[in-house]
Amino acid sequence: MTTIVSVHSYRGGTGKSNFTANLAASIALQGKRVGIIDTDIQSPGIHVLFELDDEKIDFTLNDYLSGFCNVEDTAHDVSQILNGEVDGSNSGIYLIPSSMKAKDIAQTLGKGYDVDLLTDGFKELSSYLQLDYLLLDTHPGLNEETLFSIGISDVLLIILRPDQQDYLGTAVVLEVAEHLEVPQVLLVVNKALPELDFNALRRQVEETYQKTVAGVLPLSHEMLRLGSEGIFCLLHPEHELTAELNKIVSHMKV
Amino acid sequence: MDELPAQEHSKASGLNLFELNKLPDSQRQLINWMRRKGDCSLQEIATQIGDGEHDEAVRTLLDTLLEKGFVRELLGESSPSYRVNMAAKRGRELPLKLKQALDKKKEE
Predict the structure, then answer these.
(1) Are B88 and A102 an interchain contact pair (Cβ–Cβ within 8 Å)?
(2) pLDDT, tens digit, for every residue of A29-88?
(3) Nearest CA in chain A to B94
(4) Cβ–Cβ of A109/B91 closer than 8 Å?
(5) Given a cut of 80, is residue A204 above it in pLDDT?
(6) ipTM exceeding the 0.85 mark
(7) A3-251 CATH choice from 3.20.20.360, 3.40.50.720, 2.40.160.20, 3.40.50.300
(8) Nearest to B3 by CA among B89, B88, B70, B85
(9) What is the CATH number of the domain that holds B79?
């Protein structure tokens, strides 16, 4: 049984894709098999973190939705990023990228697609790759794709910054999640200034939304310096941010 | 909350998720469950709705969703199964200049 996890934020710039990539690595390091689908067709980019460039990408989610390939063809094994740190296990990370070519983005958005293809694709991939987790990296805000992803998820992780606009937007996303009856909704506060009292921040957010805060991640200079050129938790395994990230995984009910 | 008129939706080719919260709770809850479950049998639907429900009530709820075009019946060898019928993601008209620029790039 695959646990589907949507990673979402109401506003852009919350660090959603970076978080998703790190979450995938953290789960894989625990011996699990993880798939990531970049459902952010309008502004994709998570593949950069896994060092996938145009030359290494054969087929994308756009190709599958256009009927040019099977969904299995879009899965790229990016487990090499783990540097063999989980020897002897069956773990792995598989990425289904969206195309970064302007004409592909325009074509997919312009022509639309059969939403059932996505549902079937998620199921086929989960079975074909024997995934424990399927992470959906979403487009920020609320649109049809977002509702679709949230609506089939077992877990919704909402990323927010300690920022008034993010707070208001999170309330909107939570209302939608309630209508879609997502079994588990967790909040993750990202880019918190290190001088803040993290425990107080956590309590404040939990009291406001009546939801569990799975983690409070500090704004990190090391993360900024990395600039998406790699997976932070693999490069900084001892960092406090990595420790907090690992805790988030333990909050997710399987 | 008012139910959406069946006729309005018989023309639509499936469910748009923005409409989900306009549905009565019983319909919305069944659709949410079916979307996570995938294809399911009448028996599974009856079990999900609750032990206290009569077959007739389950059938009525399902028929309403079938009539609206939000659920479709898949014929199997022995008994049919059911799945949520999602509306296709509509395309968006691109601004003419952008379309021309992309067409030009495609030709290159």
Answers:
(1) no
(2) 999 999 999 999 989 989 999 999 888 999 999 999 999 999 999 999 999 999 877 766
(3) A110
(4) yes
(5) yes
(6) no
(7) 3.40.50.300
(8) B70
(9) 1.10.10.10
